[in-house]
């Protein structure tokens, strides 16, 4: 792939697809601390790389997360979102954080 002026060219196509995703915790509970947000950003970057997508921007607060993802047209958004949510939830629960209501964590 070749990138020119924010337009990505593939073999048979030219595209520039971005999606803005907002993940909200169940009942808007305050469960994301600073350490959790840093770990989530790294997890989201790795998942995006697996899908040949790019995490352009990441930001979050205690009860929600914003993602801006640049992705190729061969990826279905539903598959990307399912992987982002599933993998991040599993890996964050696996890490040992001080008891931060992760039993109630659900995107």
Automatic annotation (TrEMBL):
SUPFAM superfamilies the record matches: Transposase IS200-like
InterPro entries: Transposase_17, Transposase_17_sf
Domain Transposase IS200-like span(s) in chain numbering: 14-101
One BP term from GO: DNA transposition
GO MF annotations, alphabetized: DNA binding; transposase activity
Pfam families the record matches: Y1_Tnp
Protein name as annotated: Putative transposase
Organism: Nitrosomonas cryotolerans ATCC 49181
């Amino acid at each position: 792939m070749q990138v020119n002026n924010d337009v990505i060219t593939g073999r048979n196509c030219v595209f520039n697809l971005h999606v803005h995703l907002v993940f909200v915790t169940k009942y808007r509970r305050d469960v994301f601390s600073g350490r959790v947000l840093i770990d989530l950003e790294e997890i989201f970057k790795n998942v995006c790389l697996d899908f040949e997508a790019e995490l352009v921007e990441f930001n979050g607060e205690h009860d929600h997360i914003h993602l801006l993802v640049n992705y190729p047209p061969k990826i279905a958004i539903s598959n990307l979102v399912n992987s982002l949510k599933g993998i991040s939830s599993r890996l964050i629960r696996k890490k040992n954080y001080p008891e931060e209501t992760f039993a109630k964590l659900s995107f």
